[in-house]
Amino acid sequence: MGRRRLFWQLFPSFVAITALSLLAVSTLTTHVVRTSFRERAVADMRRSAGVIASDFESWFPGEAPADARDAACRGMAHRLGFRLTVVAPDGTVLGDSDGDSATLENHAGREELRAALAGRSATAVRESRTVGHQLIYHAAPVLRDGRPVVALRLAVSAAVVDAELAAIRTRIVLSALVVAMLAAAVSLWISRRLSRPLEQLRRVAERFAAGDLGHRSPRATTREIAELAETMDAMAAQIGDRIRTAERQRDELEAVFAGMIEGVLLIDARQRIAGLNQAGADLLGVPSAGAEGRSVPEALRHAALQRFIERTAGEEAAAACEADLELPGADGGTVHLRVHGVRLERPGEPPRTLIVMHDVTRMRRLENVRQEFVANVSHELKTPVTSIKGFVETLRDGALDNPADARRFLDIVARQADRLQAIIEDLLCLSRLEQGTGETSREMGVYPVAAVLTAAVQTCQPHADARGTILSVDCDPALRAHLDPPLLEQALVNLIENAIKYNDAGTRVTVSAREQGVAVRLAVADDGRGIEARHLPRLFERFYRVDRARSRQEGGTGLGLAIVKHIALFHGGEADVRSAPGGGSEFTLTLPRRPATDRPG
Ligand code: ADP
After folding, report:
1. Domain end: 163, 184, 201, which one?
2. CB neighbours of 277 closer than 8 A, spacing ≥ 6?
3. Which conformational region is residue 353 in: left (phi greater than 0), alpha (psi within -120 to 50 degrees), or beta?
4. Do 148 and 19 lie in a common domain?
5. Which pTM does this prediction carry?
6. Model confidence over 415-460: pLDDT tens digits?
7. Ligand 1 center from residue 581 Cα (angstroms)
8. Residue 488 falls within a domain, yes or no?
9. Are 535 and 569 within one domain?
10. Best substitution site from 426, 429, 460, 546 to test ligand 1's pocket, by max atoms within 8 Å of Cβ?
11. What is the span of the domain harbouring residue 282?
12. Does ligand 1 come within 6 angstroms of the Cβ of 532?
């Protein structure tokens, strides 16, 4: 259905109503005026008929010839302003103002004359056969002794009456036209006044729709339109607020989404990626840019993950799925993922699937290290405990009675107990270092390095002397560094002890320290047997030994170098080794000279 503008609905209607009203009014007026004119003419004729009837004999020469009668009629008609005809009771025309009565036919058949000759006045409107156009007739009897002696008939042309009417009608039509034009102008003004504010509101609504919600409607003078404008403005303000809130929430959500360390993957009902954050892209090894819109099998080539997504999509809404997946990592290793999936359903929207991926690779690795460590500790502790238990049982079963055996066995038990104690002390020391708390951190400060080196060498000197190892110190006495002296001494003692233990008599061990940029480099170097390259990467691991039997024989716990590494880490530095079979070994500790807070960068 064609839609017309309000203006074009209002204006023509107003004009049509006005025109119809004016037409009706002018038609009615014309009709009323014509009727009243004719009635007035009839009334005039009736009055005139009455007047001339009363002294009929005085002006009408009844016995005179026809032209005299006609002349008398003409004279009277001239005075009255009507045509006048005098008719005898038998219908014969006795005199006529406009014609020749001698030639006129018998008028007995004329209806008004029939009535007049019967004694009643009558009126008729008719085409005159005598004059040839419409006339209004009025006939009245002239009564003598109650009997009509003649009938007087007055007539006036309807055209004369209508001519007067025409003059008035022209004025009526002109007035109607003026009124119609005025009404049209007023209609135009009203139509404009009604349609313009609506037009303005439409433009405002279009601006709202285009996103310009800050725009406000112009002031309207009509109450309904003003209220509509206010409602629209309020609606726009409310929508604006909602949009701002939604945008803020979306931005926050996007920031959270992007900043999450968990990988988040959103999949639509058609198995296409609807969202993937950076962490998710990193975990799955796909570029996050451009991932959206791609299908899952095409973008993610991980069968296990796809199966998990399909399973989640098939689950009941709100029922979460969980699984542990292993994916090939970018570095060739394996990425362990703990994945949670949930089907998101909203009324009227196709369901989507949300997958959250936690990278548990590090946790798994730590778990493995922990399990391995517990196994190692158990194994390390088991040997001395088994040995102690065995010898105690032997003693209880009778060996006590043999003092020589008893003493030997008790020596062994004591040695194993020492070993147990050494392992436990080293483990406790490592644990304290790892936690970085307690007594380990009490003595951090800036101290001369040479004093620590000398103290360590002095501690090891008796052992070195006993094994024929030559110890020397090489350090600038002015060199100072930020360190924990007892801890660093322990690290150096461990390294010097190793150099003594694992090398032959005559080995030279140099304990040195020198400045190296912002760090201080401490080294314990020997010219002993050295270590094969394949052992070096694992040398600082707990319980790692190159020669297990020799270590045990030397009373080693396998934790010495692990403690050294952790002391270096505790100082914010690192431990390293350089060694070659037959070429001696050099263990180094590189520590920052100043506390972390003092150091630039
Ligand atoms: P342990 O308690 O067995 O000495 P460490 O962690 O201190 O444990 O040392 C690990 C292994 O490194 C030792 O078993 C030893 O074989 C080797 N090692 C350490 N220092 C030296 C060195 N200076 N020369 C040769 N081998 C060494």
Report:
1. 163
2. 257, 258, 260, 263, 264, 288
3. beta
4. yes
5. 0.55
6. 999 999 999 999 999 888 888 754 555 678 899 999 999 999 999 9
7. 13
8. yes
9. yes
10. 546
11. 260-359
12. no
